[in-house]
Amino acid sequence: MIPEIGALFVQVAYIAASAAFILGLRGLTKPDTARRGMQLAALGMLLAVIGTLLNHQIISYDLIIIGLVIGTAIGLPMGLLVPMTAMPQRIAVSHMFGALAVTLVGIAEFLHYRDVPGGPGVIKMVALGFETVFGALTITGSFMAFGKLQGLISGRPITFPGQKVINAVIFVGAIGLWIYLVATQSGDPAASGDNGVILFGLMTLLALVIGVTLVLPIGGADMPVVVSLLNSYAGLAASATGFAIGNNVLIVAGALDGASGFILSILMSKAMNRSFSNVLFGAFGGEVAAGSGKSAEGLTTRSVGAEDAAMRIGYARNLIIIPGYGMAVAQAQHAVRELAELIEKRGGRVRFAIHPVAGRMPGHMNVLLAEANVPYDHLFDLDEINEEFAACDVALVIGANDVTNPAAKTDPASPIYGMPILNVQDAEQVIVVKRGMATGFAGIENELFYLEKTSMLFGDAKSVLSQVVAEVKGL
Amino acid sequence: MFSVIATALGVATVAITLMSDSSPTVASGTSGGTLVDAQIVEVYVFLLAAFTGYQIITKVPPLLHTPLMAATNAISAISLVASLVIAGAERPLYINVMGAVAVAAATINVVGGFVITDRMLKMFKKTEAPK
């Protein structure tokens, strides 16, 4: 192929890919257009890859083919077989792979510039450092998040004295090395001997350590924020790669990913009552020490059996179901759907109220319920449904806790005061499905459970709801 | 209104991408005045893309936040194109091998990411019209 035409084709492919990515994400603003949008984005990706393979710099395809085959052999089964309940882990792992690719590119490029007269120049060296630091910390950070979500590491926050000081020292060390490398390696990297390589390696190593120490102190319920934040870091690192090698499609795609992760982090932190700076510095988790949360002494709950609960649920005209992480753990989504269908058949109205941080990642509950065949027009966000609780006769809480705690509105001394909650307490009756009286993640008592109108239905969500379904059928 | 702004931003991004004469190749190591110009344009590309992304993604309903995450993850695996060049260009073998590992990692995300996003989106259905 004539080189100029080849180069032009590559540029056109990259521009088309950038446009396809933007339009594809626009498709995601509506459920009806989402699938086609993503197919367009996949097509854009294919174009960009084909364009790149025609690049005149590529002289051998052997290693490329090996890499593509291995990647497909791992990626395809992961895409096809991973169950929806494992989606948070799978997202965390994919951040790790994305960051691994970006970090390797950063290191390879840095080493390559040692053979290039004139070196990378200041701007590219800044980008290479950013790419490698953020890539490396995302690799280990995502791996830790994966470990916590998969249950390989304890989901509890792991803290030790002086943790923040140590973290700060490591972080400052990595940034200091980055600045030093920019100052010494931008012009003529080979002149300073092997020192540059050693220091670059040290910087990468420190960044890997930061990823671990960043996620260690963060508890399981804070994972939506962590996963979103790592999403953002992975995107920014990809964008920095674009700067480092002068490739606009990487800059565009990385910026889109970075913006998405950033927005989700903010949404999640707001929904958890954490400040924005908390998110930026990853200083969340652990801080929610049980404040002056009211103790449960002297208060009693009313426990009911499946039969009694089925009577109330079965005759409900307007039922709102509030799913939480407990539903995901018990894999109760199919039983929930069965119950919802049954109530609708009996003439009742059923809606689902979904809190932004219910579950372990943004949108977790929606995906689980969609998998169980609950139509998406039955799923409502906090803002959409909060006014409706006052008009519903039964609110059924399944494995959710802190997001329903009225103390967030009424008790300024409560650690979760100010957090947006679902107004479950406004319902005529409340039924709470829960394994036991353990407190939620925030470690505080939930006043909702002690209200006159609340009945507690103790047990594993899946088996308890199956019993309720059987009882309702017999009504 | 929103879609007009978003589309305009998208067009501007593409236009600037077109104008900037950045080569798709891995840096060749030239330096000098013109390079800085190209890099300023790259900053524009980044800003416009980030702003476009912000405008669009704030409109994505919470319903689709998990597919969104899977989708942006697949898209940012475009770093595959950088990995491909490193794996196949004339470089020392160990650098080519690093590139090949990067190709494998990015391919996992491209293939797995788009497949799983589609699998999720397929599940979102409306209530069927009563028969």
> Which pair of chains has the greatest number of interface residues, and how are they split between the two chains?
A-B, 128 and 100 residues
Can you tell me the number of structural domains of chain B? 2
Note the overall shape of chain B: flat
Query: In percent, how much strand structure appears in the residues of chain A?
Result: 5-15%
Residue windows where pLDDT falls under 50 for at least 5 positions of chain A: 282-293
Q: Roughly what fraction of the amino acids of chain B lie in strands?
A: under 5%
Compute the separation of the termini of chain B in Å: 37 Å
Low-confidence stretches of chain B: 21-33
User: What number of structural domains do the residues of chain A give?
Assistant: 2
| Helix/sheet category of chain B | mainly alpha
How many β-strand runs of chain B?
A: 0
Structure overview:
The complex is a heterodimer of chains A (475) and B (131). Chain A has 17 helices and six strands. Chain A is an alpha/beta fold and 475 residues long. Chain A folds into two domains: 199 residues, no CATH class; 168 residues, 3-Layer(aba) Sandwich (Rossmann fold), CATH 3.40.50.1220. In chain A, strands 3-2-1-4-5-6 form a six-stranded parallel beta sheet. Chain B has five helices and no strands. In chain B, helix 1 runs antiparallel to helix 2 and helix 3 runs antiparallel to helix 5. The interface between A and B is large, with 128 and 100 residues.
